[in-house]
């Protein structure tokens, strides 16, 4: 393998075209080139078979090493000495078993002689020969009967200087047609790939149609690459022309830059003169300093003498301290001997207690007296053996005590006491034999009494179980009724909230209608007065009189009509004209029935009744108090006992994320004060919301020229007056900083998602300022139910045709790259009518991919459904601000391909987020994630782990509480896990200890191991996190039962010496226990991919995490016994991914564990 990239020359200049296959395999020549190299080498290694393999042209040895790791004995040969030296150096990095199967030689092919191998691999070496057919035949001659030949070589013409021949599939077919049959011949990514098996002469043969098909495939692929290269060349030519134009423009400004340089040179000369003057001043200061230094020398002599005296005193103190420490060590040693003696006495006591229990068992059987007698005699013999052992230990301790006696007299007294107790114990053992016959008779009576008590207990137990079953059925019915009532209560609460919002709207509408009605009445009165003036006007009277002249009667009445007009005019001028009053429609009033009179009640405890100075009547509530009480009538606010009440103004997204962390009190502008007094929140949390709390705070949080009210400022002032902290979180920074700064400056604490906005806030406000990033809510954003994905790429968001030009260009690049895959787009501003043009509509070329709008309640499902999600960043230079969907997607286990931003890179690096800067990188990233299952799975698990361990709203809420001084610490059952395991041999114990110490826990989470040892297993461990106990017949269940603490909830993990556990195994299970809500979490017992991230499936008993706090009593014991019925009894289980765990048949040694971890650990 050779690369066509430029590199710096190495130490060896004899071969300018040296092969660098290992470096290419590990991406040293670029990620895309490395990916293709890995696929080709992995393909060769996968087709090797048998035990012995010959790697011809092994180069730096990566293929040989990979096959040796998989158990094959590999011989690699190459004629280039530096490459073999490199391969040998790489061989030394492998474990001993791999090195033993791996060998490299710097020889030509002919030097191998007639040695045969099960597989011969010729990877990219044939093209370097002048006669490729002859070289292939030479390599094929080393294939054993029934063996295999694997070849890869560039297809056709590759103008690399070291390529000496052109290779087509026909050359390979010609070389091996006599003795081989081709299993596979194809052209892929510009390389001929051949797999051929040696056959007998009669069975060998190669179809010309197969060779022709492979040749045609390579020709088509070459033509496609030619047209792609041609298109790239045209694009580069266009880019070159643009760059040349930019260079010409830059040269035009060179003259002005030259003039600026001259001005700077003049300024530099002036500064040089100032520098010379400063240096002269500095030299004068140094002379003065030298004079001062000579005077200080005299003082230093006196100081040195004092220092020497102090050093001598310190040395004496150190000697005394050393003697004191030696004396303390001697005392500690004596105390240890004393404690050991006490432990031996306790051991003897336990032995005596065990003997007494054995005697009581002997009394229980009258029928087998002789057998019981023999058993007792045998037990007494064991005790005598233990006594003999104890005597030897006593002798040893006596020697230690004699040595200790020379140091202190108190130890001598303790030794005598030990001897006295030992003699008493010896005497008690002798008394066992003497009392045995007497106690046999007593045992018979006790046995009968116990049998009677047992029968009575069985009857009581049956009665109790029947009663319990009845009560359980009753409780289940009550719970069903309670659930129904809760659902009805929630519906009523929702209806009440809607009704209150409507009432608030009706009040506003009624006020507006009253104002409008008053204006209409005033307008009607004006019209009525104008009408009355017109009806009583002289002009109207004269006009009517003139109209009457058309008739004889009108002509006769004309003088009278003119007289009436004259009188009307005179009356109007004198003001004596009377107008008819306006008649408005009468609306009957709505009369409400009077409220029922409440019975007089006494004041609540602790509440005083205000009375007047006369001492008789209570002062009635004020109108303001009436308004407060009225505003919260019917408001049902449930405050969980263990949660923190917080008054909040949030949008829909943030509400769903902060609600699981606290009890949110969500006021309207008209009832915040009533809720403040009723619910006593710990602090106020307001975010930069446009329609906070279901739209009730619209136009009140951001800055507007004519806001509908000042309720937000009044609410903040009310909290401050009561000494309750206020927090404002601007999640719209830096784009909408100016929209919220005025209101944000009134809060005690201002939090922003963009750290670069912190200095701007400090300039505009005296409040404390901090950073609060977005996060994921683990109950909403998690991989549960994501085992079956649809295999598609998705983008969900908006498109801006005339805004954010840089974002638009990045988005088009990313969408164009995804267009060649199975791709869906969800448009936040989707317009179903294509005739309506909008600046938010996606370009027409993406219309076939648009699937409409994605509602909020379907976002989480989409996150878990798609294989890859795309992300575009509007803000690219913020260290902390980027879209919340990045956190949510990673928590759901969905890899993200994103345009670059500083925030995503600083927070997650370039591994969790696949950053791309052009279309080629984007296409490569999407292709790898769509086709490489192992890489997809690695990024998926790493994303889940990174977010759920540090970037959830549980972490963010704790951060806010800490900054405002509210104690948010609660008993967290997931913060501590007890790991329990049972072992029977030292090797099993070593395996369990290794698995436990390998576990890496997240911050704030701790682990502890309870190691139960059977038989005579002795484990030496000084780890303070490991508790070692010896168990009897009860086994691990008995030890776990003894370790329980009443009232304390904990997580219990079961591991086994017959399992290999990766370093993230335990933390991944804890994360799954949090978001799944299951009582039992582990690895799927069937190991199927479809069982991952699934509830209620059978789990492997060697990989369990049990939430003891949510399980009824006795269920944990059933689980430890392997009782499968607990799954049918309503115990929910959850299977995580299958990574980081593998069950083995026997205890694995360290070499095998390392090999297994390398394969399955993620």
Verbal overview:
Keywords: Coiled coil, Methyltransferase, S-adenosyl-L-methionine, Transferase. This protein is an alpha/beta fold and 1162 residues long. It contains 31 helices and 28 strands.
Shape: extended
What is the helical fraction, as a range of percent? 40-55%
What is the highest CATH level, the class of the largest domain? Answer: Alpha Beta
What would you call the structural class? alpha/beta
Q: Estimate what percentage of residues fall within beta strands.
A: 5-15%
Radius of gyration, Cα only, in angstroms?
Answer: 46 Å
Task: Summarize the entry for a quick read.
This protein is α/β, with parallel strands linked by helices and 1162 residues long.
For the structure shown, list the relevant keywords.
Rossmann fold, disordered N terminus, alpha/beta, 28 strands, 6 domains, 1162 residues, Methane Monooxygenase Hydroxylase, Chain G, domain 1
Blueprint of the fold:
Blueprint: H1 21-25, H2 31-46, E1 52-56, H3 62-69, E2 73-77, H4 81-91, H5 96-100, E3 102-105, E4 117-123, H6 132-140, E5 143-154, H7 169-176, E6 180-188, E7 191-198, H8 208-252, H9 254-363, H10 369-405, H11 410-535, H12 538-547, H13 552-574, H14 623-631, E8 645-649, H15 652-658, E9 663-665, H16 672-679, E10 683-687, H17 711-721, E11 726-730, H18 737-744, E12 749-752, H19 758-764, E13 768-771, E14 793-797, H20 805-818, E15 823-827, H21 859-865, E16 868-871, H22 884-891, E17 896-899, H23 902-912, E18 913-916, H24 919-931, H25 933-950, H26 953-964, E19 976-983, H27 986-998, E20 1006-1013, E21 1026-1030, H28 1035-1043, E22 1051-1054, E23 1059-1061, H29 1065-1076, E24 1080-1084, E25 1094-1095, E26 1099-1107, H30 1115-1120, E27 1133-1135, E28 1141-1143, H31 1150-1160
Parallel strand pairs: 1-2, 1-4, 2-3, 4-5, 8-9, 8-10, 10-11, 11-12, 12-13, 14-15, 14-16, 16-17, 17-18, 19-20, 19-22, 20-21, 24-27
Antiparallel strand pairs: 5-7, 6-7, 22-26, 23-28, 24-26, 25-27
Helix pairs in contact: 2-3, 6-7, 9-10, 9-11, 10-11, 12-13, 20-24, 22-25
């Amino acid at each position: 393998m050779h690369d066509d990239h430029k590199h710096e020359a190495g130490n060896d200049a004899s071969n300018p075209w040296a092969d660098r296959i290992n470096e290419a395999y590990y991406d040293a020549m670029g990620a895309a080139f490395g990916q293709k190299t890995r696929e080709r080498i992995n393909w060769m290694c996968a087709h090797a078979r048998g035990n012995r393999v010959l790697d011809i042209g092994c180069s730096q040895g990566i293929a040989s090493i990979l096959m040796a790791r998989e158990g094959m004995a590999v011989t690699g040969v190459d004629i280039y000495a530096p490459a073999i030296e490199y391969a040998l150096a790489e061989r030394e990095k492998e474990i001993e078993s791999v090195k033993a199967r791996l060998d490299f030689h710097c020889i030509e092919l002919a030097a191998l002689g007639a040695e045969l191998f099960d597989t011969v691999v010729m990877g990219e070496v044939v093209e370097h020969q002048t006669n490729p057919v002859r070289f292939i035949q030479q390599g094929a001659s080393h294939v054993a009967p029934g063996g295999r030949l694997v070849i890869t070589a560039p297809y056709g013409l590759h103008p690399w200087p070291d390529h000496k021949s052109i290779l087509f599939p026909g050359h390979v077919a010609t070389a091996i047609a006599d003795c081989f049959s081709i299993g596979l011949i194809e052209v892929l990514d510009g390389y001929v790939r051949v797999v051929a098996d040696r056959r007998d002469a009669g069975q060998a043969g190669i179809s010309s149609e197969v060779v022709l098909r492979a040749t045609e495939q390579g020709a088509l692929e070459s033509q496609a690459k030619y047209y792609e290269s041609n298109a790239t060349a045209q694009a580069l030519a266009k880019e070159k022309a643009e760059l040349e134009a930019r260079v010409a423009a830059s040269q035009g400004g060179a003259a002005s830059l030259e003039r600026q340089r001259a001005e700077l040179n003049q300024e530099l000369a002036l500064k040089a003169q100032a520098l010379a003057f400063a240096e002269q001043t500095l030299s004068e200061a140094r002379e003065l300093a030298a004079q001062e230094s000579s005077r200080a020398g005299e003082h230093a002599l006196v100081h040195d003498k004092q220092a020497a005296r102090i050093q001598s005193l310190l040395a004496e103190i150190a000697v005394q301290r050393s003697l004191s420490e030696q004396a303390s060590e001697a005392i500690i040693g004596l105390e240890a001997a004393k404690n050991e003696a006490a432990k031996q006495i306790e051991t003897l006591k336990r032995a005596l207690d065990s003997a007494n229990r054995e005697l009581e068992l002997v009394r229980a059987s009258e029928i087998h007296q002789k057998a019981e007698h023999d058993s007792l005699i045998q037990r007494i013999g064991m005790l005598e053996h233990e006594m003999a052992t104890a005597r030897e230990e006593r002798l040893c301790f006596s020697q230690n005590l004699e040595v200790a006696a020379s140091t202190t007299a108190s130890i001598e007294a303790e030794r005598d006491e030990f001897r006295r107790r030992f003699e008493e114990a010896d005497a008690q053992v002798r008394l066992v034999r003497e009392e045995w016959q007497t106690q046999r008779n007593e045992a018979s009576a006790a046995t009968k009494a116990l049998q009677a008590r047992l029968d009575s207990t069985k009857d009581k137990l049956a009665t109790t179980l029947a009663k319990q079953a009845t009560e359980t059925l009753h409780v289940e019915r009550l719970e069903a009724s309670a659930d129904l009532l809760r659902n009805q209560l929630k519906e009523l609460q929702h209806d009440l909230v809607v009704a209150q919002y409507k009432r608030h709207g009706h009040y506003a509408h009624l006020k507006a209608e009253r104002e409008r009605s008053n204006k209409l009445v005033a307008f009607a009165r004006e019209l009525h007065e104008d009408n009355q003036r017109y009806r009583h006007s002289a002009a109207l009277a004269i006009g009517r009189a003139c109209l009457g002249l058309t008739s004889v009667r009108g002509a006769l009445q004309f003088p009278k009509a003119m007289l009436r007009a004259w009188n009307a005019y005179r009356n109007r001028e004198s003001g004596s004209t009377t107008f008819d009053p306006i008649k408005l429609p009468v609306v009957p009033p709505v009369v409400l029935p009077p409220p029922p009179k409440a019975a007089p009640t006494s004041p609540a405890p602790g509440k005083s009744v205000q009375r007047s100075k006369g001492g008789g009547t209570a002062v009635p509530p004020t109108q303001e108090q009436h308004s407060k009480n009225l505003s919260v009538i019917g408001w049902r606010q449930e405050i969980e006992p263990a949660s923190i009440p917080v008054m909040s103004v949030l949008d829909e997204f943030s509400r769903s994320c902060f609600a699981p962390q606290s009890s949110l009190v969500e006021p309207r502008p008209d009832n915040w004060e009533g809720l403040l007094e009723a619910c006593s929140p710990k602090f106020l949390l307001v975010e930069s919301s446009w329609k906070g709390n279901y739209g009730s705070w619209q136009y009140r949080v951001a800055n507007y020229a004519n806001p509908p009210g000042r309720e937000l400022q009044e609410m903040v002032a009310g909290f401050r007056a009561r000494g309750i902290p206020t927090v404002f979180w601007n999640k719209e920074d830096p784009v909408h900083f100016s929209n919220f700064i005025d209101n944000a400056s009134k809060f005690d604490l201002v939090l922003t998602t963009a750290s670069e906005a912190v200095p701007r806030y400090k300039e505009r406000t005296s409040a404390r300022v901090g950073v609060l990033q977005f996060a994921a809510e683990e109950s909403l954003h998690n991989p549960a139910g994501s085992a079956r994905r649809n295999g598609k790429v998705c983008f969900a968001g908006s498109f801006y045709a005339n805004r954010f030009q840089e974002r638009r260009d990045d988005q088009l690049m990313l969408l164009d790259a995804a267009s060649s895959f199975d791709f869906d787009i969800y448009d936040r501003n989707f317009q179903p009518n294509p005739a309506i043009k909008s600046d938010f509509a996606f370009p027409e070329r993406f219309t076939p991919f648009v699937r409409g709008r994605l509602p909020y309640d379907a976002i989480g499902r989409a996150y878990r459904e798609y294989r890859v999600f795309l992300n575009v960043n509007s803000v690219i230079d913020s260290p902390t601000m980027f879209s919340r969907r990045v956190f949510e997607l990673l928590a759901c286990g969905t890899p993200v391909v994103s345009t670059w931003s500083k925030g995503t890179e600083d927070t997650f690096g370039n591994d969790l987020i696949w950053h791309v800067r052009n279309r080629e990188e984007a296409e490569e990233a999407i292709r790898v994630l769509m086709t490489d299952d192992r890489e997809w799975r690695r990024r998926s698990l790493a994303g889940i782990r990174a977010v759920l361990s540090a970037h959830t709203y549980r972490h963010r809420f704790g951060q806010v509480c800490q900054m405002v001084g509210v104690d948010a610490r609660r008993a967290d059952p997931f913060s501590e896990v007890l790991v329990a395991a049972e072992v029977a041999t030292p090797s099993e114990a070593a395996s369990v200890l290794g698995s436990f110490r390998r576990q890496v826990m997240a911050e704030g989470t701790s682990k502890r191991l309870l190691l139960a040892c059977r038989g005579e297993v002795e484990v030496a461990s000084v780890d303070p996190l490991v508790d070692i106990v010896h168990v009897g017949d009860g086994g691990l269940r008995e030890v776990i039962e003894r370790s329980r603490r009443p009232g304390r909830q904990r997580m219990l993990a079961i591991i086994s010496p017959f399992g290999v556990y990766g370093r993230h195994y335990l933390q991944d299970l804890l994360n799954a226990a949090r978001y799944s809500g299951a009582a039992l979490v582990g690895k799927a017992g069937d190991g199927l991919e479809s069982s991952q991230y699934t509830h209620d499936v059978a789990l492997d008993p060697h990989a369990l995490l049990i939430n003891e706090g949510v399980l009824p009593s006795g269920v944990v014991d059933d689980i430890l016994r392997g009782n499968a019925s607990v799954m049918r009894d309503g115990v929910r289980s959850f299977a995580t991914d299958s990574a980081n765990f593998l069950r083995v048949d026997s205890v694995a040694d360290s070499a095998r564990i390392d090999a297994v971890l390398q394969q399955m650990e993620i």
